[in-house]
Amino acid sequence: MKDLKVGCQTFTWEMLGDRFAGGPDDLLKAIADGGYAGIEITDTMIGRYADRPAEFATALKSAGLTLVSFAFGSKSGFTLMESISADLETAKRWIDFAAAFPGALVSMGSATVVSDGPRDDKFPIAAEFYNKAGELGRKAGVEIAVHPSSHHNTLLFDRADYDQIFELIDPSLVGWVPDTGHILRGHEDMADTLTTYRDRIRYVHLKDVDASGTWAMLGKGVCDTQAVIDIASAAPHFNGWLVLEEESETAAADPAAAVKTNRQTMRGYGA
After folding, report:
1. Residue 157 and residue 149: Cα distance in Å, rounded?
2. Per-residue b or e along 76-90, where b marks 16 or more CB atoms closer than 10 Å to that residue's CB
C-alpha cells in the first residue's frame, strides 16, 4: 500500500454561504487543528491569497499543511463553446498559482448543463476545455484532473456519463479525482467504476452517503472506504492523498468539529 496522506477540502465551509464569515486563515487553522496534513482549497475560498501564492505558501508552512490541489469551477459549466477561451484564461491563472507549490494539482469542477440543447452535444465541449486545460498544465508542469459531481444539472452523474466523457478526455493530459459520495449517488457499482478507470486516478475525495443518497458523515453511510483505499492504492498514478470532504447536515452545524471527527475515523484505516 502506498504511503497514505490525509487532506481536507474547504467546500465544507463554502457550502455554508453567508453563514461562514471567516477567511482562508480560519480554514487553515481549523484543518490543521483537525489533524490533517494537507488542504484542497477552492477559488471561492482562497480569498486574499488569490494573487499572492508566496504569502499563501508561508501561511501553509506556518500551519504545517501541504497544498494538495487547487479546485475551480465556472458559471459556464464548461459546456458553453463561447466560454472556452475565458475558461482557459481562468484555468491558466490557477495553474500558474498551483505551480508555486511542488506536487500540487489543479482540479476542474464537473461539467454542468447551463443551457438548452441536446445533453449529448455538451460532452465534446467539456472535453475540449478539459483537454486544452490539460495542455496548459503540461506546459507549466502542473497535473490537471477533473472532478465529476452529482450536484444539480451535472453532466457527469452516472456511469454512462463517465464512460462518455472519459472516451473524449486524453488520459495523458487530464487525470481524475474520483469522489466516493458523488459516485455512489449515480453509480450502482462504485468499485467497478473506480477499477475500470483506475489509471486516471490522481487522488481521491472521500465522503459518504446513506442508502438514499443523502450526505452522511464518513463511516456512517454506505461507502466501503477500505475498498476505495485498496483500489486507489493499486492505481499507477495515485499520489497517496485521500482528501476528505464533508457535506452532511452535521458538518453544516459545526464544520470544524465534523472534519476533525472524519480525520479520527480515517485513523481506523491506518491513514
Report:
1. 6
2. bbbbbeebbeebbeb
Separation of alpha carbons 91 and 110, rounded Å: 14
Angstrom distance (rounded) from CA 154 to CA 161: 10
Is the pTM of the predicted complex or chain greater than 0.85?
A: yes
Q: Note whether 80 and 129 are within 8 A (CB).
A: no
Tally: H helices and E strands in the chain: 11, 10
- Nearest 10 degrees: Cα torsion 17, 18, 21, 23: 40
Which residues fall within 8 angstroms of residue 1, CB to CB, at 6 or more apart?
A: 229, 230, 233
Q: Which residue has the cell 478507470?
A: 197
Residue whose C-alpha cell is 481536507 = 8
pLDDT tens digits for range 187-234: 989 999 999 999 999 999 999 999 999 999 999 999 999 999 999 999
